[in-house]
Each structure stands twice: as structure tokens, then as C-alpha cells.
Design brief:
Blueprint lengths: L17 H15 L2 H13 L2 H17 L15 H60 L9 H7 L4 H11 L6
Helix pairs in contact: 1-4, 2-4
């Protein structure tokens, strides 16, 4: 194997442990989180509960009872409950926007995790390539002759061109390479 095709020694890589990777992701997520994201996350976690559902049901039942003349109340929003319909519609609009904000944030977090996974995969690829190279050197050093040329091994020992992969992916997505 030619020296120029050798993968970088593992010692040249910044040592990434599980803990440092997780902390990098957490700090990046915290850094990216604006006030609207924090409010949307809090509202989503508050509104996405059984308590909120029960509270809504109680409010609707009380509203309908208070606006039904059969029970002796003077209706302030008689059937077909136009004011209640408007309030429920506004609540639905607000909840939908809050959910969309929260989903956008989750999408950003998924992108960060995907980048982290890619970095781990690249590191693993480099390590496996290095192991293959060492095994090939050990085989040659010990005078063990290969039964036949292994084209797959030769291909696997070549370093992966990450830039070429990125350009191919961006071309697939219809983006221009940077």
C-alpha cells in the first residue's frame, strides 16, 4: 500500500469520548435555543398533558351549561356558541403555531445529532481502514502470502474522500457545493 493513501494515525485525531460528544451536542443545542424556543418548549410540554385536556373539557362543559337556558342561566353566548367557537379556533391556531415552533427546534436538534453521527461514522471508518492496513502489514511482515489478490481489501484500504461524498450528497439534494 502506498504511503500517501495511509489513513491518519488515530493519535492525530482529537480524542472524542462519548461524554465529550454528548456535551458538545448539549452545549450547541443550548446555545441555539432562543427565548421563543424556550417559551415554545415550555408551552408544548405544558399543553401536551392530560391535565390540559381535562381543563379544556371542564371549561367547555361549564361554558355550555352556563349558556343553556334549561339550567336557569341567562346565556351570554347562546347556541350555537359563536364566542366559544371563536375562542376554540384561536386556541387551535395558537397551539398549532407553538407546535410548529417546537417541531422546527426538534428538526434542528435532529440535524445536530445527524452531524455528530456522521463524525462518529467517519472516525470509525478511519479506524477500520487503519486496522486493515495494520493487518495487511502484519501479513506481509510474517511472510504470509495471499492466496489471491483481494480487490475488496485494496478498495477498503483506500481512505474515504469525505469532500467527494459531501458534493455527491449536495448534488442529490439539488444544492450547490460550498
Amino acid at each position: 500500500m502506498a504511503k500517501q493513501g495511509r489513513p491518519k494515525p488515530i493519535s492525530e485525531h482529537k480524542r472524542l469520548t462519548k461524554e465529550t460528544l454528548v456535551e458538545q451536542v448539549r452545549s450547541h443545542i443550548r446555545f441555539e435555543r432562543g427565548w421563543s424556543d424556550r417559551v415554545a418548549d415550555w408551552l408544548t410540554s405544558s399543553f401536551g398533558t392530560a391535565t390540559f385536556l381535562i381543563l379544556n373539557i371542564v371549561v367547555f362543559v361549564v361554558w355550555i351549561v352556563l349558556n343553556t337556558p334549561v339550567f336557569g342561566f341567562v346565556p351570554f353566548d347562546p347556541f350555537p356558541y359563536g364566542l366559544l367557537t371563536m375562542a376554540v379556533s384561536l386556541e387551535a391556531i395558537i397551539l398549532a403555531v407553538i407546535i410548529l415552533i417546537s417541531q422546527n427546534r426538534q428538526g434542528k436538534i435532529a440535524d445536530i445529532r445527524q452531524k455528530m453521527d456522521f463524525e462518529i461514522d467517519v472516525r470509525a471508518e478511519e479506524e477500520v481502514t487503519k486496522i486493515l492496513y495494520i493487518l495487511e502489514e502484519l501479513r506481509a511482515h510474517n511472510g504470509i502470502k495471499a492466496k489471491h489478490a483481494d480487490a475488496d481489501l485494496v478498495r477498503m484500504e483506500r481512505p474515504v474522500d469525505i469532500e467527494k461524498m459531501r458534493e455527491a450528497l449536495e448534488a442529490e439534494d439539488g444544492q450547490k457545493p460550498r
